[in-house]
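[Q] Does anyone have a clean structure-token version of this?
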Amino acid sequence: MNEDTLHLLSECAAGTDMAIRSLDDVLKNSPDGPLQRRLASSKRQHESLAAETKALLRAQGKEAKSADPAARAMSWMKTEAMLAMKPGDATTADLISTGCSMGIKSLARYCNQYPTASREAKDIAQSLIRLEDQLVKLQVRDAILAALPDSVLQAGTTTGAEAALRQALPVLHQAAQQALYKAHSPQTARLKLERLDFAPRDYGSFALPGGRYTALRVELGEGKGHNWFCVLYPALCVSGAQAKYPSQAENALVFGRYEVRFAVVDAVKNWIQQ
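[A] Here you go.
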């Protein structure tokens, strides 16, 4: 194992340690809910990468590097102060996305700084970058969802929903850009409406039939990795009496107007995803 490999693994170890500690800081102040579960899942994934990194270092007789004490103390103080002044998911999300962007920049710099590191070490670094990037992308997703106007969610027809969504594109783009700015991310967002094919999806309480649908596509940066799709399903914008589907699962989407409107929210949340 060459020196570049050891250095890169050491920085990955320090990065995962910092991330896990930072996640612990916000999780103890987060009420149970989607954000807390998302962060808890991210913590478990960071712990898995940390264990893999430590194992590789110990095989070479090296101890894993911990997060810098000064940086750790400053992060803790910032978290405590911000959550004391303005508790809630919005502040938690801002703290995490900012930390993730800083971590991405540091890891990218280390990958360039240690070019002869092993493929295994580089893969761990890239996995950590993707994990950090995922949390930033989820903040963009949430910002877009929060900015969706009622004219989209309450549209009476698919044509009306598509027209409302097209009209809302500048507002949604601004929300995405603002989320990236708050996360100190250098990425830019691109939003566009497309016709795309989707496979059937079963969410337990309801199912979405497969087919070709109008979709809001959100691309960040170079658009690599997973993409998010927000699909406007025709069945979610009409009453149950007008829907005609061959299976009970498909008709479960359209029991009535109020159920349909709740399903619209669920569908949008599930289909704008990475």
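[Q] Thanks! Anything notable?
[A] The chain is about 60% helix and 10% strand.
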